[in-house]
Amino acid sequence: MLDFRKLFLTVVALALFASMAMAQVVAFEPPLSCTAQAAGTPSIRDNGVTEMVGDVLIICSGGRPRPMDEVLPQVNIQVFTSPVINITSRITGTTGGNWSEALLFIDEPQPVQQTLCGSDAYPEGVGVGSGQLATVGVCGNHVGTGFGIVGPGGGFYGTGIGAYDPATMAPAVDALAYPRVALNGSSPTYRGNAYQGRYSGNNSLIWQGIPIDPPGTNTTRVFRITNVRVNASQLNNPRGNQSSVLLIVSTNASGVTNPIAMPITNPSPTVAIAQTPMDFSIDGGVDTFLQCESQNYVNSSGSRFATSPSDQDLTTASGGIQNSQFNLRYDERFPTVFRRRSTAVPTGDDSPQVITNDQLGLPYQTETGHYKVTANSNRWPLRASSAAQRGTLTNEFSGAGIATHGTRVIARFANLPQGARFFAIATANLRATAAIGTGTEITGWARAVVTDANGSAPFAKSNVVQTCDATCANINLTSSTWVSAAAWQRHRRDRSGRQCRHPGLGNPPDGYDGL
C-alpha cells in the first residue's frame, strides 16, 4: 500500500510538472526586435525651410504572429529631429490635431496596393469587442493572418506574412478565411498599410495606434516613414561646412488599450546632410557704371534698350552689338540643388501638370515627395468623412507630398534710383560640364516667375516687354520702392552633374545682391 501511494504521488508530481511545462511553452513569445536605418542620406540645402529628408526604415523580426481570431496589438511610433529644428511637412488638416503630409507605410506596398487609413476601403474605427479605443485617425481593426502553424498546446498561429497585403483578402473573418476584417459587425473591409502622421510639437510627428502583427523569426516586417520636411536654415550651418540631420525614432503605448512592446535599436539614423547649396558670382561683365546714364549698347536700329525694347535677345550678340551687360551666375555645390517640381517634363515654358510620385524607395530627386495624383480605387485618398479632418491628399496645390513649385533662385537689387529700368531674360539656360570633351552643354532651363519678396507664389510667368520665342523674351524690372527683385524657377530636365544658371541682365543698378 505504501509503495502504491508513493507511486501515485510520483504520477501526480509528473503530471503537475508536465502541466507547468506546457503552460510555459504556450506562454512563450519570442521578443520583437526592430532596427531603424536611413533609406538614404541626401544632401539638403542649409538655407531651405522645407527640405525633404531621406526616408526612415524600421525593420522588425521576431515576436509571435497573431492568429486570425486575435485582434492585433497597437503601438505609437514617433520621430523627433536632432538637432532640434522644426519639422515643416505640409499641414493637410487641423481637426483633431495638425495632420501632416508625412506618411508611414508597412511592408513596402506597391502603388496599387497602398491602402490608407481613412479611405473608403479602410475606414477609421475599431471592431466590436476589440477592446481598442475609437480614436480619430486610428485604424486598428486588424486581426492576425490565421492558418499558420499549430502552436504548442493547440490553436492556429499566424504566419506573419501578408498581414498588410490587401490583395490577400477573403469574404469575412467569421468564415475562417484570410485577412478581411468585419467592421462593427457589418461588411468586411480591406487591410490597411498606410497611415498619416500628425504633429506632436514643432519638431515631432506621431503615428498613433499602428496595428502590429509580429512577423516571427522566419521573415521581417518593414515600416517606412516618408515625406518628412525640415527647416534646415535653423541649423545655422557655417558656409562651406556640413551639418547632419537625424530623426530619433521612439515607440510608446500612450492611449493604446492593446499595447505591444516595440523596442528600437539604432534609433537615431542620419537622414540628411545640410550643405551650402550654391555659389553666386557676376559672370562676363563689368561692375562699375555711371549714374543717371543708360548703360546699354545701341542696338541695330539705333535705339537704346533702356528707352525702347530691343529687337535682340539679352543673351545674344548681333553685328558686334552686345545687349547683355553681365550675367548673374548660380553654381550648384552638389548635384541635386536645382530640382523640378515633379518628374513631369514641360514641353514649353509653362509649368506642366504634376504627375504621380508613389513608388516607394525610388529617388525621384524632385521637390515633390510621395504623391498620388488621383484616387487609387477606393483605397486612396481619404473618404469624405475623414477628408474634413485630415485633408485631401491628392490635391495638386495642397496634397500630401506635393511641392508648390520647383527650385527658385532670386536676384535682389538694392539702392536703385527711383524710376530706374533694367531688363532680365525670361528664360535662363542651365549648363553643365559636357559629358564628352570640354566645354558645357545645356541641360535645361529656368523660367522667370512672379513671386513675393521671398520668392514664394504659385507658378506664374513674369510679364515681358516684347514678344518672341521662349528663349529671347526680356523682363522689364522697374524700381519704384528702391528695391527690385527677379526670380527664376527650375523648369526642365535633371542631370547628376553640377549645373549653373546664367540669367543675363541689362542696364544694371549701382549695387546688386545675389541670393
Summed up:
The chain has 515 residues and is mainly beta.
Describe the protein.
- There is one protein chain.
- By secondary structure, this protein is mainly β.
- The protein has helices at 2-27, 384-390, and strands at 32-38, 43-45, 51-52, 56-62, 74-82, 91-93, 99-106, 181-182, 188-189, 194-199, 204-211, 216-226, 229-230, 242-252, 264-265, 270-275, 278-283, 317-318, 321-322, 326-332, 408-413, 421-425, 427-433, 440-449, 474-478, 484-490, 499-501, 504-506, 513-514.
- The chain is built from two helices and 29 strands.
- Strand 23 and strand 24 form a beta hairpin.
- The strands form five sheets. Strands 1, 2, 4, 5, 6, 7, 10, 11, 12, 14, 15 and 16 form a twelve-stranded mixed sheet that branches.
- It is elongated, with a radius of gyration of 30 Å.
- Mean pLDDT is 75; it is low at 4-27, 170-187, 303-312, 465-472 and 506-515.
Mean pLDDT: 75
Strand content: 25-35%
* Shape verdict: elongated
Q: Estimate the helix proportion, in percent.
A: under 10%
Radius of gyration: 30 Å
Uncertain segments of ≥5 residues (pLDDT<50)?
4-27, 170-187, 303-312, 465-472, 506-515
Q: Please work out how many helical segments DSSP would assign.
A: 2
Structural class assignment:
mainly beta
For the terminal residues, how far apart are their CA atoms?
103 Å
Main pleated sheet: 12 strands, mixed
* DSSP strand count: 29
